[in-house]
Amino acid sequence: MTSLVESLRAAGCVFAEEEAELLTGAARDDGHLAELLARRVGGEPLEHVVGWAEFCGLRLEVGAGAFVPRRRTEFLVREAVALARPGAVVLDLCCGVGALGAAVASQLPGGAELHAADIDPAALAYARRNVAPYGGRVWEGDLYAALPESLKGRVELLVVNAPYVPTEEIGLMPSEAREHEPLVSLDGGADGLDVHRRVAAGAVPWLAPGGHLLIETSARQSPSTASALASAGLAVRAVTSEELYATVVIGTA
Ligand SMILES: C[S@@+](CC[C@H](N)C(=O)[O-])C[C@H]1O[C@@H](n2cnc3c(N)ncnc32)[C@H](O)[C@@H]1O
Asked: Quick check: 2 pLDDT over 90?
């Protein structure tokens, strides 16, 4: 264990002891442990190496080529759950591995009718397994084009963590994200808000009367995200968490 911790520390892993335990727990045998250590020391995100990420107390499957759910996104889940009725129809759009949808459904008394959609089949392979315990269904395609017509007018909670990093800032991201998460999961176009504008513009036909769209953004981008939702005819407010360094814009139909 000592040499494992030392190797991780030498590679710049700040939480070397914790990581050593997680790698040991994930390894089948010594050979496999050496393989996992080499991947981690080589710069792969810990979650990709061990195959899971913790999110809102759930252990979600993730792996190479998938966006790793961020701790700050737990704030959106908290806000969504506070707005939902038990058994609500929930759509996790741009779902990645399905973290938002799985977490909301796991916290609603009576569960949810859960749908999750993404354009990236690699992410959906994980999402399918992560939403299965909640009876969730996954849909593949470009935003709303992925969805069945039967969902129109029925979505009570539309939860979205779409890409919102401006293209020019991708190069400033940590290498774990830049090199190991797909560009489609990070790049939000010139001002970072291309996908936000499209999500907002297309939302209303899918929302139930009184339904809510919750979308994660940054404090800096929040006024532009809010104005995209307002232009779509939604009543808008923004909420922030200093603890999680998180901002969510909420639009209500
Ligand atoms: C920042 S990641 C977030 C994933 C997930 N919501 C989470 O918080 O863990 C953004 C996701 O949006 C998806 N995406 C990007 N453009 C999309 C589009 N046009 N239609 C559907 N999904 C899209 C990416 O494939 C990626 O999974």
From this structure: no
The CA dihedral of 88, 93, 97, 101, to the nearest 10 degrees, is -10
Question: What average pLDDT is seen over the chain?
Answer: 97
CA atoms 82, 85, 91, 95: torsion sign: positive
Q: Is 118 in the pocket of ligand 1 (CB under 6 A)?
A: yes
Spatial distance between the Cα atoms of 190 and 10, rounded to a whole number of angstroms? 37
Kindly give the distance from the C-alpha atom of residue 142 to the centroid of ligand 1, in angstroms, as a whole number: 10
CA of 95 to the centre of ligand 1 (A): 6
Residues 118/121/126/128 CA torsion (nearest 10 deg): 70
Question: 């991947």: which residue's tokens?
Answer: 39
Q: Is 143 in the pocket of ligand 1 (CB under 6 A)?
A: yes
- Percent of the chain whose pLDDT exceeds 90: 98
Tell me, what's the pLDDT at 227? 98
pLDDT, one tens digit per residue, over 191-200 is 999 999 999 9
Cα–Cα distance between 235 and 251 in angstroms, integer?
Answer: 5
Scanning 132-241, the segments in alpha helix (DSSP H) are 175-180, 194-203, 222-231
95 lines ligand 1 (CB under 6 A): yes
CA–CA separation, 92 and 204 (whole Å): 15
Nearest to 127 by CA among 103, 107, 151: 103
Decide whether any atom of ligand 1 lies within 6 Å of the 68 Cβ. Answer: no
By mean pLDDT, which of 46-50, 67-71, 107-111, 221-225 is the weakest? 107-111
